[in-house]
Write a structure and sequence with these properties.
The chain is α+β, with helices and mostly antiparallel strands and about 350 residues long. It has two domains: about 5-135, PurM-like, N-terminal domain (60s Ribosomal Protein L30, Chain: A, 2-Layer Sandwich), CATH 3.30.1330; about 155-330, Alpha-Beta Complex (Phosphoribosyl-aminoimidazole Synthetase, Chain A, domain 2). The chain contains 13 helices and ten strands. Strands 6-8-5-9-7-10 form a six-stranded mixed β-sheet, with helices on both faces. A four-stranded mixed β-sheet has the order 1-4-2-3, covered by helices on one side. α1 (about 5-15) packs parallel to α3 (about 95-110). The two termini are about 30 Å apart. The model has no long low-confidence stretch (mean pLDDT about 90).
Length: about 350
C-alpha cells in the first residue's frame, strides 16, 4: 500500500511506536525533562551505503537503526530515554515497509526503556534514516575516551569480526554458502543485521569502578584503539592473539578466503565496548562482570599516543604484526568502502 498523507502517516507512527496516548508526538517539538546532564548523539544510515534492502528485512533495519544509536549512549555509560527519527522516503517504500521498520525500531527501544519522541518525514530518491538519541547521564558519572592512564587494563566485551563476516556472507557469490547461510552461520548474520548495544554492561562498569575510560567499536576495533589512545595521550600495547573471535567467524573467513583477524580489527559494526580500567578496579569486579570482558593488553605510558601490537608468551596468533594498518581503518568519506 502506498504511503498516505503526512498527517495520516504520523498517526500510523504513533500506533506503531505505541505512542497513541502520549503527548510527545504531534506538536512542533517534543517536551522533555531530564535530571542532570543530557547525553545526545546522532547517526545516519543511507541505503546502498550502510545497508541494502536486498540483504536485510525492514524489521531488522529498524532494530539496527535504534541499536547503533543506543550504543553511543552505552559508550558513555548513559541511560537512553528518547530518540527522534528522521526519514527520507523514496517512492518504493510502502506503508507495510514502514510498519515493519517501526516494529523493529520499537522492539529495540522498548528493551532499553526508550521511546520515540518525534522526528521528521520527507521524500527523496534514497531511503535514509537519521536518528538522534537523548540519554541521561549515569548517577555515578560519565565514561569518556580521554581518561586512560598508565597501568590500566585494556579490555573489550563480546567478540569481533562477526558482523563483517555476516556482511561478506550476504554479499558473496557462493550459492552453496548462501543456501545454507541461516543454518550454518546464523550467529554472524544476526551480529550484522541485529546488533545489541551493551548498555547493561556499561552500567555495571561505571557502578563498580573508580574511573572508567570507554567507547564503542562501531567503526572497528582498530579505530577505537587508535582514537582512545590519542584522546588519552597514552600508548596501548595489545596482543592480537587475545582479540576474541567467534569460531563461526573463523570458519566463514576460511571458506571465503579472508583473514578473520583483519575482520576483527577493521571490519566494524560489532558495537562492542572498549574500556580502560584501573587494575585495582578490575581485580575487585564481580565474576559476572569479569566474565563479560576479555583483556587485550595494557596502557603503558603517557606521552605520544600509539597502538603497539605485541606477541606475548600466551599469544594464540602466529602472524607477525607490529602496528595497525592505517589504510584499513574505516574512513566514512572513502568512496571505496563497501556498502
Amino acid at each position: 500500500m502506498k504511503l498516505s498523507t503526512e498527517l495520516g502517516l504520523i498517526e500510523d507512527i504513533k500506533k506503531w511506536t505505541k505512542q497513541v496516548h502520549s503527548n510527545l508526538i504531534g506538536d512542533d517539538c517534543a517536551v522533555l525533562a531530564f535530571d542532570g546532564p543530557v547525553l545526545a548523539s546522532t547517526d545516519s544510515m543511507v541505503e546502498n551505503v550502510h545497508f541494502k534492502l536486498s540483504t536485510t528485512s525492514l524489521f531488522d533495519l529498524g532494530y539496527k537503526s535504534a541499536a547503533v544509536n543506543l550504543s553511543d549512549i552505552a559508550a558513555m555509560s548513559g541511560k537512553p530515554r528518547q530518540i527522534l527519527v528522521g526519514l527520507i522516503l523514496p517512492s518504493y517504500i510502502t506503508r507495510e515497509h514502514l510498519s515493519d521498520f517501526y516494529g523493529g525500531l520499537t522492539d529495540c527501544c522498548s528493551r532499553y526503556d526508550t521511546v520515540v519522541a518525534g522526528g521528521n518525514l520527507a521524500s527523496g530518491e534514497q531511503f535514509s534514516i537519521n536518528i538522534t538519541v537523548l540519554g541521561q547521564a549515569h548517577q555515578k558519572g560519565i565514561a569518556k575516551r580521554s581518561t586512560a592512564q598508565e597501568g590500566d587494563i585494556i579490555a573489550v566485551s563480546g567478540d569481533f569480526g562477526a558482523s563483517a563476516a555476516g556482511f561478506n556472507l550476504l554479499n558473496c557469490t557462493d550459492k552453496e554458502l548462501l543456501k545454507n547461510a541461516q543454518s550454518d552461520f546464523s550467529y554472524c548474520l544476526k551480529r550484522h543485521t541485529k546488533p545489541e548495544p551493551r548498555l547493561e554492561l556499561s552500567w555495571q562498569l561505571i557502578e563498580h569502578g573508580s574511573r572508567l575510560t570507554m567507547m564503542d567499536t562501531s567503526d572497528g576495533l582498530a579505530d577505537a584503539l587508535l582514537q582512545m589512545s590519542r584522546a588519552s595521550s597514552v600508548t596501548f600495547e595489545v596482543d592480537p592473539g587475545s582479540i576474541p573471535i567467534h569460531s563461526k567467524t573463523k570458519e566463514l573467513a576460511s571458506k571465503l578466503g579472508a583473514n578473520a583477524l583483519e575482520w576483527a580489527l577493521y571490519g566494524g559494526e560489532d558495537y562492542e565496548l572498549l574500556a580502560c580500567i584501573p587494575e585495582k578496579d578490575f581485580k575487585e569486579f564481580k565474576t559476572e562482570i569479569k566474565d563479560q570482558l576479555k583483556i587485550l593488553g595494557r596502557v603503558k605510558k603517557n606521552g605520544p599516543s600509539s597502538v603497539k601490537l605485541i606477541q606475548t608468551a600466551d599469544s594464540k596468533w602466529n602472524e607477525s604484526l607490529s602496528c595497525l594498518n592505517m589504510d584499513k581503518i574505516f574512513n566514512h568519506f572513502d568512496q571505496s568502502n563497501p556498502s
